[in-house]
Design brief:
Blueprint lengths: L1 H20 L16 H8 L2 E3 L2 E4 L2 E4 L15 H37 L5 H44 L7 H11 L1 E4 L2 E4 L2 E4 L17 H30 L8 H22 L1 H22 L1
Antiparallel strand pairs: 1-2, 2-3, 4-5, 5-6
Helix pairs in contact: 3-4, 5-8, 6-7, 6-8
């Protein structure tokens, strides 16, 4: 009987010890190996736009016309999905305003040139020209707002994708750091902590965001160099076109050749300016990773 009591007592104590080592339902227990490092998490889930490519560390994915091919990427982020849908809705109206504005502008030309005096025809022509210009301005405004909302959608989508692999106890701190320290592109500037910051001439004012960050500063410098080159080509092309118009023969012979050459150089400059944004997108992608990692390790 005595041996039976000792055995029962021993089993009871062993059960209590084992129970104390097992986390209860209300305990916050997160095995370290269950969550990837922040670098692994960022490389696996964060994305940036490279031209018309949806880019991650694993490769590129075509976004399609109007970003339709990446609609599924925003399902994990309710706020990101809402911003994405708003960007798409704005983008769909652009062709209407652009085509209508162009049609009114072209339609006004015959009315403006047929009569040397101001009469009802010229009045209608001026009205059509004004309407065409107004519709073109609306089209540009829609294009700007659509692009800005897409950038915000991408930023929100990255936040929520990264949060999925952050331990629940760290999620409030991570979300605060992400929303206050990271940046994303906007027209002629970038957004940081909810406020728009100007880029300055050829993006010079943004340098402070990339200084001391390996990888990011190099890509930012590539962006700046391409901005300078593109601006130089664009201005040189315009100057050549103006010079050809003021030549003695006008757009005949050498003047026409100069005008065509200037147009080509201007187009090349515009292309370089547009393509340089991909380096800025890469710089922001690397900057955001480094900033968050440093802040998470510091606290």
């Amino acid at each position: 009987m005595k041996n039976l009591l000792v055995t029962a007592l021993t089993l009871f104590l062993l059960f209590q010890v084992a129970r104390s080592q097992t986390p209860g339902d209300s305990a916050a227990y997160f095995p370290p190996l269950e969550y990837p490092s922040f670098k692994e998490n960022y490389n696996a889930h964060a994305v940036f736009v490279n031209g018309n490519q949806w880019t991650t560390s694993l490769g590129n994915r075509p976004m399609g016309r109007g970003w339709k091919e990446v609609a599924d990427e925003f399902e994990l982020s309710p706020e990101g999905k809402a911003a994405y849908q708003l960007a798409q809705a704005q983008r769909r109206t652009i062709p209407f305003y652009s085509i209508s504005g162009l049609a009114l502008t072209l339609g006004s030309l015959p009315l403006l040139v047929t009569s040397p005096n101001f009469d009802w025809q010229k009045g209608i022509g001026l009205g059509m020209l004004g309407g065409g210009l107004a519709l073109s301005l609306i089209s540009n405004d829609k294009r700007t707002k659509s692009a800005n909302n897409f950038q915000e959608a991408l930023w929100l989508r990255n936040r929520d994708a990264l949060l999925q692999s952050v331990p629940p106890t760290d999620q409030p701190r991570f979300k605060y750091l992400y929303e206050s320290e990271t940046i994303y592109l906007a027209t002629k500037g970038y957004i940081k902590n909810g406020h728009k910051q100007g880029m300055g001439i050829l993006g010079g004012k943004a340098a402070k965001e990339f200084v001391g960050i390996p990888g990011a500063i190099e890509r930012y410098r590539k962006y700046r160099n391409n901005q300078r080159l593109g601006a130089l080509l664009y201005v040189a092309g315009l100057a050549t076109m103006v010079a050809s118009l003021s030549s003695r023969n006008g757009l005949r012979g050498p003047g026409l050749a100069l005008y065509i050459g200037g147009s080509i150089v201007t187009g090349a400059g515009s292309g370089v300016l547009s393509s340089s944004v991909r380096f800025l997108s890469q710089a922001i992608y690397l900057r955001n990773y480094n900033v968050i990692e440093r802040q998470m390790l510091r606290q």
